[in-house]
User: Fold these one by one.
Assistant:
Number 1:
Amino acid sequence: MEIRYGNLNFLYLLILVAALGMLLLWSFRRRRRLLERFAGSELIGRLAVGMDRREYKVNAVLFLLAVAFIIMGLIEPKWGYRVEQVKRRGVDIVIALDTSRSMLAEDVKPNRLAYAKREIEDLLKVLQGDRVAIVAFAGTAFAECPLTLDYAFARMVLNSIDTSAIPQGGTALAGAITKSLEAFQDPIKKYKAIIILTDGEDHEGWVDQAVEFAKDRGVKIYVVGIGGTEGSLIPIEDERGDRSYIKEDGEPVISKLNVEILEKIAVASEGDYIQGGGAGSALQDIYREHIVPMEKKELGTGEIRRYENRYQLPLLIGTLLLILQQGFVATLVESGRRLFRSSKRQDRQEEQVESATA
């Protein structure tokens, strides 16, 4: 039987059970020592009325089990499921990620590329039935991940991307746009968006033609600019791990964010430009403000499993154990015993009376 959990954030509370167990054990031993010091071991049984060791241990175990079952209820265990047919509707999103060496600049922490990958990771967490593709680009562009609803696969591809993904140096923005357009699988001029994450250092040209081509196909381009306009050095490490900076003609190269060309791309395609590196998630903002309201298309029908919540069972067991631990059951049992003894005593008295009469 497959068991799933709805809220594992409460799992750490199980440490509380162990802590309570040690506290109760310490309390029990300390009380025994104090009693022995006061009266001696021989008199404890006479003086400590109602403090039976076995009763104390049973109550402690019941209490710890009750807490453990209540925590299990908070974790929301689920087992058993029903299969439902669902229609998938969404937008096709192609994410173009700049992997040129300028993305190693550290004016955005930890560096531009790491920040961009973290932004994409955040976006994958909020996608709602949209297909996503990933294109890596530098001097040329390559589709690393085709359009897919498998966000785990997209995440795995994303984690493998670094500055060696595209051997040819440079930043070919036009090539990135063209390759992103090729990733779409139908000619319909709707349901599509391109998101580019880059510092905008274009070394190729003919970006205007690529943007016009995207606009003709009904594709809006959203751009996240990464880096600072004041510029930053580009660090590199050799095989021994020694750190240096990229140089050109003996002088360190300073990489600057090219806001002008990035805003031009966004405006010309009727998309939007956002400066990255600030508070919150730039990609999530783009998704919620621009992509979610877009018209969506049917992406097929699939089956999903709806697992049944079973948190009621451990909560019920925990509650019953607490009641038992509080002595309600013990009180009822003792009351029953008293009634039984009283009944037997009365029967004996009646027998004695009958014998005397006879």
Note: The chain is about 45% helix and 25% strand.
Number 2:
Amino acid sequence: MQTSKNVKKSLTQNRIPRISTRGFYDLTSGRTLKKKPYAVYPKRFFNDLGKFHELTIMIHGLRNNKQGALAKFTMAQKRLKQLGYKYPVIGFSYDSNTKGVQYKSTEAKATNVGRTIARKNGYNLAQFVLDLKKQHPDTKIRLIGHSLGTEVILSTIHRLKKKNLVESVYLFGSSIPADSFSVRKFGRVAQNVVREKICNYYSTHDEVLKYGFESGIIQKPLGYSGTQGKTIPKYVQKHVHPKNHRFASYAAVLRSFP
């Protein structure tokens, strides 16, 4: 049996391609520390992106350090492969392991810092999408976000604005507001940016989102209640029953992709 140390070592050695903004934002305050758009690993893989017809970028949630993020990317890659997906799965790794989120006394502040960092990362991911589409305009880009990762995606969409830059979006256990894709709010931007669909997998049994909402840490989340108000035509939602809030549980109830 592998020890936790060996598991971490094997994950670190895994060559899953990833976009990283680790160290770009302060984990205590959310303050911007580096203004460069992103880093990529391994560079050789990203130099050859033009040979792929499409790719999927997975964005993890709160409380993930580098090793935790890599574990989520591995889960996403494995599950999509099981479902017959033959294209690359790339990870987007950002500063989500904010200080104090595990303690009751500081969880609200730490969550807010995490949300600030996630929204700021919309700039970073949007820049990657723009750079990729500039070099390879025919490459399809799909986005998968879990929990706080969906806030990165929403911010990315708002920054992109241009038509059909993203092929499709998949949200799991989303912490963004329930009216995020309503016609009356910001949905029209998403309708323009996303070519195919935005699919929200939500669960009224998600204990983490329920706690966050009922304690007032986050406003009513899309991943817990589903949408509010009239939505844009490209938005669809599916009520699912994962065992818990973890990405592994949501991946397990995914039945097809894309």
Note: The chain has one domain: 4-252.
